[in-house]
Write a structure and sequence with these properties.
Blueprint (H helix, E strand, L loop, with lengths): L4 H4 L1 E3 L7 E3 L12 H10 L2 H20 L8 H4 L6 H7 L1 H6 L3 H25 L3 H29 L3
Helix pairs in contact: 3-8, 7-8
Length: 161
């Protein structure tokens, strides 16, 4: 069963009412959204592009930590979860479209944690603590990165893409 599907499933309250309610207890494996609503979400944000961008960012940071890149990163900017395209979407139209779902808050929190871990990696690297930076990159940062990617893939799967 998918993570998002536990939180995004719509269920009719009764057969005479067109209103819906969130079915937390429903263990269906599919996300059920009105097709028009799902199409609106998909035109607002390209989940595949977000995943690809996230993976490219991870490679850039790895190269900085390993010393194979001359790029200089600002830890404060790296730690700002709202400066990347995913963060902007999460605070803008993504929040408007999905903000009422409990799982949306999880994605926002995991994204912020990812940025905090990335900033810590950059800070350690710039302080000359390469071993600690590499350990954090391979541990907490990688875990945070994987969580964001997993949540995005689950969202994409739930929307039928």
């Amino acid at each position: 069963m998918g993570f998002f599907s536990r939180f995004f499933k719509f269920k009719e309250q009764d057969s005479s009412s067109p209103e819906t309610t969130w079915a937390y207890e429903d263990n269906a494996s599919e996300l059920v959204l009105d097709p028009e609503y799902a199409a609106t979400l998909m035109t607002e944000f390209d989940i595949d592009a977000a995943i690809a961008s996230h993976e490219a960012w991870k490679d850039r940071l790895r190269q900085v930590v390993e010393g194979t890149s001359t790029e200089v990163m600002d830890p404060q900017q790296v730690g700002d979860a709202d400066c990347c395209s995913l963060g902007q979407w999460l605070q803008g139209s993504g929040k408007d479209i999905l903000g009422q779902y409990p799982a949306f808050d999880m994605l926002v929190a995991r994204h912020r944690y990812f940025h905090a871990q990335a900033a810590a990696v950059v800070s350690l690297s710039q302080a000359g603590e390469q071993e600690k930076a590499l350990q954090l990159f391979q541990g907490g940062y990688r875990h945070a990165s994987n969580q964001v990617t997993l949540l995005l893939k689950e969202l994409r799967r739930g929307l039928g893409k």
